[in-house]
Fold this protein.
Amino acid sequence: MQESILIDGQAAEAAWIRDRGFQFGDGLFETIAFRDGGPCLWEGHVDRLLDGCTRLGLVAPPVELLHAECMQLCAGLDRAVLKLYITAGDSERGYRRPDTVACRRILQRSNWPYLIDRPSWRVRICRQRVGENPALAGIKHLNRLEQVLARAECDDAATDEGVMLGQDGRVVSGTMSNLFAQFGGVLVTPRIDGAGIAGVVRRLIIELGRQHGWEVREDRVDPDKLRSADALFMTNSLVGIARVVSLDDTELDQTVPVHPAIDAARALSHVPGAAS
Amino acid sequence: MQESILIDGQAAEAAWIRDRGFQFGDGLFETIAFRDGGPCLWEGHVDRLLDGCTRLGLVAPPVELLHAECMQLCAGLDRAVLKLYITAGDSERGYRRPDTVACRRILQRSNWPYLIDRPSWRVRICRQRVGENPALAGIKHLNRLEQVLARAECDDAATDEGVMLGQDGRVVSGTMSNLFAQFGGVLVTPRIDGAGIAGVVRRLIIELGRQHGWEVREDRVDPDKLRSADALFMTNSLVGIARVVSLDDTELDQTVPVHPAIDAARALSHVPGAAS
């Protein structure tokens, strides 16, 4: 095929622009905490990645191979961040995938970003909302423009994270985290059947609740109710669990004892897991 | 920053994975027909691109520069396809854009794909639906996973294009085209205020209607109504206007005279325009 490429005015080879991850966001990613010699919550990351591959019709690489490559990249390091991509590989222009898709897997290691292990976050509710599509809900695909735009609203030094609402005005998640609201002995997190990502720390908290009989509920969450919560928490693979100190202009009481599922998940979210 | 990358198990430099187009689909594209010495419907492409840059908070490159680069890439060619990307440039991992965004512009030339100029398309309605988000509707951003999945439903040799519905079950567009349904003297195309792309041929048809007093309407379109249309057309920059010969298992009468706005747009959609 005759083809030619200019990047910022310069002739370029740039075979990478054929990657369907770049062309269309046709792929998935995982952001994994590597600590104390291993990837944390590995099983959760792998399960979500495999679910994503199934739902996008991509062939997942062998899990043992992924684990070995994570270990290879982080050998000798105490802490690091691993970002793992699976894309639908290369193709010509056009949405149609080639008859034979050769998925590309990319593993990127970067420095551990946090100085403290139990951050407190100042949070605001973003104007930018999430589109809803049950076919894509839950998986960590590469179409993340909504999160980018919402994140740009949290650009001031006084905001750590933003809360995103769905088209129906209900809470979905943070821009880069999931959200838990504590009401008495009950922990509530938004359902992610229409939008949002099935976070691995989110899953850990829900599973701990199930195992121990602690009340952890997936439900519709109204943004107005957040301000009356006894405590709010935001979760992701790197931060683990951050406690929310303020929501827009409302300061939250930090003295309320945290729900046992939060406490238990905190103890586990940064412990390296075995390859499942 | 200490960093290391493995691609399919091989250590790689791959600075391109820092491009936010790849990381998040943080960018825009245009697919432009180059014919008879110039880019077709240039003004329409440029207007949509500039609107997209504004709405995503990106600084657009000078239009004259883009035009000059298009001409440079296609010098001496009779027909070609130009794909133009504007991405939010490079960044570290994380949704947050850097304080100073240096947008990247990429221009890719490829071969003209069509053997005939007035194709007839066999079309089916896809199960994969489009998520709705007014903040992203209309612009041609790089988050196109829904179109990829819908396109995969049209993989058989007997299907040229798929029609996508929104979450509300109404018609939005084709996977790679817009749709017009002709009912008597009225041409109707789905509104794109919640989802879909403001196609340049679509715009041409609407503007021709406005100029000449032909009835062309943007409206909610129910999929069941499509089968009772006198004629259906799908539009995009490369194909221009394709007439639909069948919708799922319904054959459409090809003898109905086409709406004058369709006829007029056909005559103009592949005529090179001046840089505006």
